[in-house]
Every structure is written in structure tokens, then in C-alpha cells.
UniProtKB/TrEMBL annotation:
Biased composition (Low complexity): 492-508
InterPro entries reported for this sequence: DUF222, HNH, HNH_nuc
GO terms of molecular function: endonuclease activity; nucleic acid binding; zinc ion binding
Name of the protein in question: HNH nuclease domain-containing protein
Membrane-spanning residues: none
Organism of origin: Corynebacterium halotolerans YIM 70093 = DSM 44683
Family assignment from sequence similarity: Belongs to the Rv1128c/1148c/1588c/1702c/1945/3466 family.
Annotated region described as Disordered, given as residue ranges: 101-148, 428-523
Domain HNH nuclease: 377-429
Amino acid sequence: MNVIMGAAEDIARCVDQIEAGLAGLAGHLVDPSAVAFDEIREHFERLEQVVAGKSYLDAAFAFIAQEADAGRRVGSTKVVDYLTKRLGLSTAEAWSRVSQARSLFTPPEPPKPEPVEGSESEGERVARERAEREAQERARREREAQERMREKLRKEKAAAERLKLIERELEQLSLHAVPGRHVIYEQALEESRRRSPEDLRAWVRERVRHANAAGRRPDGARDLFAALRKRRIRFSRPDADGGVAFSGYLPADSAAKLKVALDPARKPEHLASVPPEEDKRTLDQRRADQLDHILTGYLSGEGARPGGIGSIVVSTTIDDLDSLSLDSRFPTNTGDLLNPLELLRLGAAGTDYLCLFDKDAVVPLAMGRARRTATLEQRIALLAAELVCTDPGCDRPETDCDAHHLVPWVQGGRTDVENLTLRCRKHHGNNNDARDGSGGMGHAERDPVTGRVGHRWAGAADVEVNDTVAQQRSAADKLRRRGRPGEPPGNRPGESPGDPSARPSGPSSDPPPDEPTLFDRSA
């Protein structure tokens, strides 16, 4: 007890000294313009290093608070609530300190041997015992790394920004990664002394990638569910406009399903009430619209909402509607505040509940949507005829392409197969609908001789078609080559493989090697 009281008294004195020191510094800087930079520069550089040491103290106190079940001091079972209410921290900062506390002070859990089912052979027993010894050795290294990491942090005062960066990257570490969390953390602290924050992030990310790849379960098998365990979706609090940011992590199969589900968003005409040429939505905005369309369809299915789960309830009164304005906001059971436009859009689902509470009225709102797009049959016909983008040299597949009107819809062009072609996002945006060569821009056009769609470069006399290997896999091209038996894919008549002269003569349309993937492409 005396030792604890002595420590508490010393800590109180230290805090008093810090408080007095900060007050003294602030007193000297009442008028910063009166202080010479070169005279105080070194002192403030040292101050930054001193203050960096608080990161260790913050984590240590968070650990002490957690062990003491400090949340109870504020009527909660969560230490985070104590940190936010008594220390005035944001929830994000509180969680960050708790995470740091666990990394520094919570002992790594010893490995748990998997139970043996039935009898095992001598070879199986030997392999199991070897795996258990290896797991115990990894746990020992983790404990030692944690001790070294803690001592290093206490002495070297690593900046909070770098510690948070390391923590964020280590969130992607798999359960059975080799090496584990504390070993990588210790190594990252050493690297943080000589790397910029951006380079440190890249270093930790690469280290985590290798550790995940090397990870094995106690039985020596690959952990096939590592990505599945990391799945998550997170929502932010509504911002000033009522919108919500969300992020997440999906295993490969879920990511593939999401990409396919959002794939229609790449069509400018999809879910638009205006012609593609007048649609000013970005690709990201069209994806958001497609996601909303999917959610509306899901909520419209009665079988998808057992027991009322998945229902949106909007609470309002007749008086609220009588005084309706653009600034009106209506509360929902999800915690989101909806303005009148959002209310109408929500009503478009036709199945979510819009409850207008008055004496005896419950009035549902609903509105329709208009949309214009190429039909499924037309998309199939384009797939058979072209398979990929028809810009010369491009091999973007149909799923990465828009259905482009050769004669623009606003100029009377019809939405039929004869007036459509596949154009990837990049080359669709490069098309000059005026067909006047202005700005050096060419346009998609159907060759009057062959009937194939290609590209007419600005000022060119002929239409150049796409003869990439990818395009030659199309059904139409295979039919065209029926009369040329033995011709290997990838060669046009009279050309040899790799012949530079066989390359398109117009400007290169090959995407750069580092072109972002579908979800990274900007509009």
C-alpha cells in the first residue's frame, strides 16, 4: 500500500510539473510574433520528442483502467466509455489506446493444442508433438518480443502517429501468421527510426503479407479461413449532410460477388433518367446508385425480411409534413436523419415502412423510377460479336465495357445492335460524338466494307478494327476465320507473330501497366 501511495504521490508531482511547464511555455508565447524562431527552434524540437513519450503512458494507463474495470466508474462495462467520458477522448482515440495497451501489456495467449480425435499413428503423434513444440517456441519468441518492444517504447518515445500506423497495418495480420504480432511490431519500431510514415506503412504491410503467407495452423496445414475471419463492414456516424462513410474487408469470393453485383454501374445509361450523353454521374456515383438499387430490391423481397428485420421505419407527424421544407429531417430506426428527397427515394422501394404518426393515420409514400439501358439480349449479341472493347489494341472484356451508341442517342441513334458497340471506360470517354476530328479525337464507326466496328482516327480515311488475341476469341471472329483453316489465333492474314508492323498504326490504346483495377478507376 505504501509503495502504491508513494507512486501515486510521485505521479501527482510529475503531472504538476508538466502542467506548470506547459503553462510557462504558453506564457512565453502570448505573442508569437515577438519570439525569434531560431532562438526557440531546438527547444520545441526537443519538446516534440518529449511529448512523444506520452504514447507509452497513454497505453499504460489504458491497461490499468481496463484491469480495474474502469468503465464501471461511468456506468459501463467498457473501458472505452471511461476514457471518452473522463478523459474527453474521441471514441477512435480511446480504442486506439486500448489496442496499444493490449499490444504492450497483455501477454500473448499460449497456443492451444488441437484435440486428438480417435487413435493416431506413431507418425501422426510425432508430427503433432513437433507442431506443438514449434507453436510453444513461437509463443516464447512473441513474449520476448513484447518485452523488448515495451522497453524500447518506454525509452525511445516513439511518436503516437507511427504507433497508430503500425497498429492499423497489423489489423490485417492473420491468426496463425509467422512471425506473429509482437515480433513484427518490434521490428516495425526499429524501422520507424529511419523510415518516413508512408514508407513505414509500406514496410509493415509487406511484412504482414509475408507473415500471412507463411502462416500455418497447429496441424501444419494452411489456414484457409484467414481472410474469412477478417471480414467486416464499418459505418461512420452521419456527417453534416447526413451521409455515412463505410469501409470493410471481404474474402475473395464475397469481393467477387460484390464486384459483379456493382458491374452494371459501368453502363452510363444504367439507372439514369437521362441519355448517357447527358449523364454527368461519375463511375463512383453510379456504383453508389447500383448499390442502392440492389438494397431496394432486397428490401422489396418479403422473404428477405423475416420478423421485420431489415425494415426502415420513418417517424413523423402530419404537422411535420405541413411545415415541410428542404431543411426538414425525419428520424428513423437506424439513427439516420432523412431529408424530404431522401424520404421520397426511400419510398421508391415500395416496401419499407413510412409511418406518419398522428391520431389514426399511417400513410405510405411511394414513387417510381425511370431508366434506360441496352437489353440483356443486346448485351449478349455484342458479347458474341465483339467480346472485348472494339478500340484497336484494347483487350478489356465485356464486363469492363459500356454499350456505346455509334450514332449518339441524342442525335437520333437507336438502341439496337446495329448502332451499338462495346467500349471500355477509357475509350468510351475518348470518343468524339461530333465526328469532326476536333481536338484530334476520333470516333467509333462501323466499317462500310466489312461491317465490323472499329475506330476512325481523326483525319484517317479508313476504319481500323481491333484484332487483338482477345478479340479473336469472339464467336464472330471465329466464324470469319472459318475460311482460313490453320490460322493460329493472334495473327491476321499475311502477318507473322510478333511482327511490329502488325501493330495498329494509330495512337496506342494499350492501358498503362499500372492502370488501377475496376474498383480503383476514377471516372
